[in-house]
Amino acid sequence: MLGAGDTGDVSVPAEATYADGSTGTLTIQLTGWIPGPAYGETEAVRTSRIHTCTGPLGTTAAIFHQVGELDPARNGRRSR
């Protein structure tokens, strides 16, 4: 999945639905968008600046790629 925390690091619960209709839970952890990865993510994209209501700043920000751990014994269909 792709994402980043807005005001800091985030850890949120998620539910995966498998092809057999069963569900399982996992935790998604993502780093805030300004520092480097803290939870084993990789950077998908990093900007050269951010934009605020008063104009651009020379601060870089990133969107991260994170892998969620699913139950390998079940076939994953989608997560929400």
Automatic annotation (TrEMBL):
Q: Which species does this protein come from? A: Streptomyces mordarskii
Superkingdom of the source? Answer: Bacteria
- Protein name (database record): Uncharacterized protein
